[in-house]
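Bit of a strange request maybe. I'm writing a small parser for structure token strings and I need a real example to test against, not something I typed by hand. Could someone generate the tokens for this chain?
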Amino acid sequence: MGVVVVLNADYTYLNIINWKRAVKLLVQKKVEVIKYTNRVIHGFNHKIRIPLVVRLIKFVRSLYRRSVPLSKKNIFIRDGYICQYCGKKIKSRPTIDHIVPKSRGGDFSWTNVVTACIRCNQKKGCKLPSEASMSLIKRPVKPTISEFLMKKIELLGLSGVLDDLWS
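Reply from user aminoacidic:
Good idea to test on real output. This should exercise your parser:
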């Protein structure tokens, strides 16, 4: 059915959850609904409208306090699931490529790993991009928290929903 945007008590973006978790939080009175979808679920004795945006009743500390955690999933989100060598949108099975290969002392860091399609990753192998006659579309950098969260919202197609709330 979809995802639900969770806002903190001060209306700052916090996270995205599935609709079942949102309904559970609503029933537990931990959130209030800011905006509903057109979808309805039918219970035994009642109907519940599926929320699109909810706000926590109690303020919680933000998801990332100082920086975005480094993980494969977060690398894919940073790069928008786009191969950083050929520019193709990767629909299934994205891979991580080390710009300086691990065999040559490269580490798993924000500035040394990028999203790559299987074809480009295999073509590059354990060479440097220059040795494989390949170049990066953009230089990898560590994203700020706000850049990362906006990219995540954009990838889920929810940027219009949040724009409506603040306008």
